[in-house]
């Protein structure tokens, strides 16, 4: 940890992961390893998706802007979205929670309530089956989710083919607008003002909700898989960055239509957890999806015919 | 988070969890929920164990006493032990890692190498299939493991019956001795001295190894299940505290023989990740297990005929 050594801050998330992957032990049960929304593990009689995410006070949420309930809700919803983005139905979560000893019990109870209500609304039947509670310097949630493919073939990022349609279910841009509103109006000298958050909720319920209590279209993920989606992911780091991930994994270009997307904000804002999917030209696009582009030859993301190289995404070490 | 509110430090881990469990969403796929080493989730064609654990800089390790390699090794080994303690063979891990941006990349690579070597030694074929990397104020690892029951009935904490034998595989007490040595000789004014750690490794390899790079008897867990073990867990919080958990879950007393255990230190020290199992009287106790007591009527833990109420265990908020 000496000052002259290369840091993970220097490298950023992607390059650090690229350094780590070759070092990790391989599982003989791996059907799909790191790099997609979920890993897929071979089990007797089938395969299960497995995904894990960290939500850390500071980079991922600010207490006072988010309540405990919001934090639990969002941690639950985002992991459900990763399972849905493979075409599976979420079935179970395990939750690790670290918090300072001085944390109010009601705060932790409210995190649990947020999990409860998000699971009930977004993925009825899915629940928290285990976890771990520990002491930490800040509040940190580590959520792992699994699910049931129930007969569908897992939909990865790698199957998009030239000529396929690109479609999205769920909203885009709201989470970014909500974040901007919170940072501009509810953070005074770095201190959160919960009363200002209440006012923003009242004035901009859709955008604040998209940021603090997202409602990813979980059922749309499975519907897309049943409709024959060739590639899918949830938009957690911004449409451009995530579309580029599909393009790279599939060896194609993703050609997007800005008018269909609606705004530049929707193109570059992150965290909406919309389902981004590619469909064969003759597939029946499921309800809830709207077509926003087409898979083309080439690489990267093209918007209205021009390469779009703005980074437009979220790196926990860069931002 | 106001100062007058009840804190999770006031309540401790167990009581906080008791407050949270009723609040969490239930999974319709739960075969076994919170409270054992793993949850068990129904999947098409079978059931899978799922366990998660946090390891946090400060409460769980001190960088400079532990290397990155040690931290990865221990995080891997302890999660493998939870899977083994259900009678399953570990198959896959997902790993969430949070670290400050200033963390050296080599440190993170060494964590990965520790995972690699621990999995290779302790559970060949099991590997890391996914994960998440994020920024945090300290180094935090969140590991989730799954496995394969491969035809055996999961062994929970609740099946011990009066007259069954209590046996343990693996060492007891070494992790506590190793920790005491490290805290006494390698921590100067709260600052770790890596050179002193090297000297301790040379002088006390078994005890320092038990603390920094534990080698839980993973294969013994499955062997116990195949031999008909009626209850099992890995000893992660001290033999007395963990034996009491089996006693409580099974509605019996656990009567231990101090001479067979070897020392008071082995009785109360934690973190050795030995396998503690109960067997029917006519079962063939598998190699590696030694009998240390018997299941009796009553409640709690009895040592040499007298109730043993010393807490003898680890609570992340109390210690």
Folded structure, characterized:
Chain A has 319 residues and is an alpha+beta fold. Among the domains of chain A are: 24-148, PurM-like, N-terminal domain (60s Ribosomal Protein L30, Chain: A); 165-170 and 216-307, PurM-like C-terminal domain (Phosphoribosyl-aminoimidazole Synthetase, Chain A, domain 2, Alpha-Beta Complex). The first copy, chain A, is 34% helix and 26% strand. The first copy, chain A, contains 10 helices and 15 strands. Chain A has helices spanning 8-20, 68-84, 105-122, 174-185, 194-203, 205-212, 218-226, 239-250, 258-261, 264-268; strands spanning 30-32, 39-43, 46-56, 89-99, 127-135, 140-148, 165-169, 187-188, 191-192, 231-234, 253-256, 275-279, 289-296, 300-303, 306-307. In chain A, the strands form 3 sheets. Chain A has a 7-stranded mixed β-sheet with strand order 10-12-7-13-11-14-15. In chain A, helix 2 (68-84) packs parallel to helix 3, helix 4 crosses helix 6 and helix 5 packs across helix 6 (205-212). The mean pLDDT of chain A is 88.
Q: Give the H and E element order of chain A.
A: HEEEHEHEEEHEEHHHEHEHHEEEE
Indicate the multimeric state: homodimer
Give me the number of helical elements of chain A.
10
* Largest interface, Cβ cutoff 8 Å: A-B, 96 and 95 residues
- CATH T-level fold name of one domain in chain A: 60s Ribosomal Protein L30, Chain: A
> Could you give me the name of the CATH homologous superfamily of one domain in chain A?
PurM-like, N-terminal domain
Which structural category fits the helices and strands of chain A? alpha+beta
CATH class of one domain in chain A: Alpha Beta
CATH architecture of one domain in chain A: 2-Layer Sandwich
The main pleated sheet of chain A reads as: 7 strands, mixed
The total strand number of chain A stands at 15
Radius of gyration of chain A: 19 Å
Can you give the mean pLDDT of chain A? Answer: 88
* Shape assignment of chain A: globular
